[in-house]
Each structure stands twice: as C-alpha cells, then as structure tokens.
Amino acid sequence: MTMPVAAQTAASPAGQPIVRPATPADDAFVEELQATAFGPGRFARTAFRVRERFPIDPSLSLIAEVDGTPCGSVWMTPISVGGVRGYLLGPLATHPNFRKRGAGKLLAREVSRLALERGEGAFVLLVGDQDYYCPLGWKATPPGNIRFPGPVDPGRVLMLAGDENLVTAVKGAIAGFDAGA
Ligand SMILES: CC(C)(COP(=O)(O)OP(=O)(O)OC[C@H]1O[C@@H](n2cnc3c(N)ncnc32)[C@H](O)[C@@H]1OP(=O)(O)O)[C@@H](O)C(=O)NCCC(=O)NCCS
C-alpha cells in the first residue's frame, strides 16, 4: 500500500523537505514563488498557454515545506493527447533559499505518484531538463509527436508512464482531459 501524503508529512526529519496538499492559504506564496522562479516571462511560456486553456487540478497541487516553512510548489493539469488521458506537470519551483535539499524531486515524484494512482490518466508529461527529470523516470518523447500550443524545444518534451510504450506511442495535439478515451 502506498503512503498518503499526510502520513509522510508526520515522519519528516528536521531540515528535510516534506510535501502536503496545497490549500487556498498557500495561494500568495505560490504566486510569489512562481514570479521569483520564472520571472515576468512566465506568462509567455508554452506550458503556461496549456494551463490557460485547461484548468489545473487543485487536488494535485502540492506544497513542499521545511520545518513548517513552505518552500516549493507543483501543479498538475489534466490533459489528453491523441485520445490518451494524462497530466502536464508544472510549474515546479523551489524557493532559492531552499534549493538542493530534494524538495523539487520530492514534489515531482509525489505529484506524479498521486496522479497516476488514480488510474484515470496514463502519463505525466512535462517540458524540462533531461538531466533533472530522466533520473526520476521521465523519458524523451520522439520530436514532434506531441504538439503544444506554441514553440517548445523538442528535446525537453519528457514523459513518465507506467506503460513505457506510451512514450513513443502517444501522438497528437494537447487537448482537454475530457477529449481522452
Ligand atoms: C529546478 C528546481 C525546481 C530544483 O529544485 P530543488 O528543490 O533544488 O531540486 P532538488 O533539491 O530535488 O535537486 C537538486 C539537484 O538538481 C540539480 N538541478 C537543478 N536544476 C537542474 C536542471 N535544470 N538540470 C539538471 N540538474 C538540475 C541541482 O544542481 C541539484 O544537484 P545536486 O543534488 O547534485 O546538488 C529549482 O532549481 C527551481 O525552482 N528552478 C527555477 C524554476 C525551474 O527551472 N523549474 C523547473 C522547470 S521544468
């Protein structure tokens, strides 16, 4: 059996990041964190355009904390590609004062585990650095297979899936979750 997020929170050693579900009280922190991490250019990013079209799932918004202080955040957007349902991960950010403690990887792993465990979506897509995400299980998709509503570096379109065949098999434009099979 997998451990719920709340149970992991309780067992956190001092100084180590834990994750918990975000609440509306975290909204201001998350907004400020995303502004710090991505700057004003964040609104022009292609992944942002996806989130403009399709809403994030608030129940898959997580906060990382160190000793009770929020330090990181991740969001998930339910999407589909070519009739296959999945999720777009991002933005993922850790506050500069709390980097290199494992918060970013913990957030990426936990939000993906929670999403895929639901059994409603088959993959977690993101636009990011292979060096960061591939050790966590993400794999590069074939260039051009997945079409975004704007330019993306094809080498940064990465997918995590229980069925690894999906990494090469999923093709098409990003659509809403409800457009999935
Ligand atoms: C990327 C980011 C989320 C990492 O957060 P973090 O909490 O420091 O991550 P972790 O502690 O889990 O991992 C840190 C490790 O990843 C490495 N790393 C960080 N960014 C990396 C990148 N883009 N590519 C490769 N490695 C990276 C760090 O050097 C560090 O390595 P070390 O463990 O050998 O020292 C954070 O740097 C951030 O918010 N950056 C700005 C926003 C951003 O780029 N988000 C990702 C968009 S896809």
TrEMBL record:
Classification via InterPro entries: Acyl_CoA_acyltransferase, GNAT_dom
Record lineage: Bacteria, Pseudomonadati, Pseudomonadota, Alphaproteobacteria, Hyphomicrobiales
Gene Ontology terms, MF aspect: acyltransferase activity
Region (Disordered): 1-20
The N-acetyltransferase domain, residue ranges: 17-164
Keywords for this protein: Acyltransferase, Transferase
Gene3D superfamilies: 3.40.630.30
Group of enzyme by EC: transferase
SUPFAM superfamilies: Acyl-CoA N-acyltransferases (Nat) (SSF55729)
Documented EC number(s): 2.3.-.-
Protein name in UniProt: GNAT family N-acetyltransferase
One Pfam family per UniProt: Acetyltransf_1
Domain of life (superkingdom): Bacteria
